[in-house]
Amino acid sequence: MAPQIFNSLLEYPIVVALLLLVMPAIRRPHLPGKLRWAEDVVLAVALFGLVAYILPSQLWSGWTVASLAVLGASLAVAYLLSSRPAMLALSVAVMMGFAFVNTGGSLYGERTFFGVYEVYTEEYDRNVLVHGTTRHGSQNTDPATTMEPLTYFHRGSPIGQVFEGYGGSRSFGNVAVVGLGAGTLAAYGEEGQNFTFYEIDPEVVEIAEDTELFTYLANSRANVEVETGDGRLEIQNAPDGGYDLIILDAFSSDAIPMHLMTREAAASYMEKLSEDGVIAFHITNRHFGLEPIIAGLAGELGLSGLSQYDNSDDFAAGTDASHWVVLTRDEANLAPLEGDGRWGPLDEEEPIVWTDDFSNILSVFFWD
Fold it and tell me: What is the edge-to-edge ordering of all strands in the sheet holding 243-248?
């Protein structure tokens, strides 16, 4: 019921509060005599500080001094109220509620089976699409720069270098993109090119096509089509050899869509790729190193590849760090990128092969 009732993850603080409500009271000694009032004073100060901190920030980002202080205050509140479960449940519900409830300022907010989406205007007059805690595209609102690609797709990013390196007579005629986001990659479209985006969530399609939020799709110079459905399945409807460039952009969040990275999936992509075409994998991830998986695909299918980690993370400029890998049938097809010192060979020391029958997410976890 929660996805139908709430447009945020509000059921989490509700369940935690209910759990605390039925928790047996913890018997502990109170402060002696006239000092007993100090419990309520400390409680009031701690609650006020927590709400004042959480309300503007919504969610914490990283273990900063401030977030450690908030954690300490939270533990103090829990201890002070441990003998009064009803008060503890109410206090925790209030504190967590401020973190999970949209308190205003959003241009758009919705929740689907795939998560919570929010669009808001951030600093430097940019609209940004956030899915959970991950940015899935942003766009300048200034008409002079509105079609400048940002975040992981900026002009100097690895995927920007792909479009630049294969420009002119080598330009991609037909481009497929698995994963839509805000539709940023449509900014690279030129006259005569065809861009087909495959997006599993209809809500994302609605967001990207809403010109009050983003205009990458509407203002692209290329012919743009959006197909709704699972990218691996939908792309099978395309003619064999029909795409000159396939971009797998479904790996920029904490979750890995494993069925898009298996040996069988890669083989199906290759069927849809032209003879001298290129596949670009966006493998940016906070918790998992995915390059060994792509190296395993290259080895299994006899493909050549290059890799690049772009560290140009500049919030003021609207750029985010990203990690990309490109694969192709013939190494000669990589000539436009091999001369660029920013690209390097795939790390093939310990390749990992995932199949439709087997995957091991712990094998790519960043343990350090």
Answer: 223-228, 194-199, 174-178, 243-248, 273-282, 322-328, 304-310, 344-345
Q: In what order do the strands lie in the sheet with 126-131?
A: 106-112, 115-122, 126-131, 134-140
**pLDDT the model gives residue 59:** 43
Instruction: Give CATH for domain 141-364.
Output: 3.40.50.150
Residue 248 Cα distances to 23, 83, 146, 235, angstroms: 47, 53, 24, 11
Beta bridge partners of 223: 194
| Positions of the chain with pLDDT lower than 70, given as ranges | 25-84, 94-105, 168-170, 251-255
Whether the CB-CB separation of 284 and 252 falls below 8 Å is answered with yes
Give the DSSP H or E segment for 343: none
Residues of the chain with CATH 3.40.50.150: 141-364
pLDDT digits (tens, 9 = 90+) for 130-172: 887 788 899 999 999 999 999 999 999 999 999 999 986 567 9
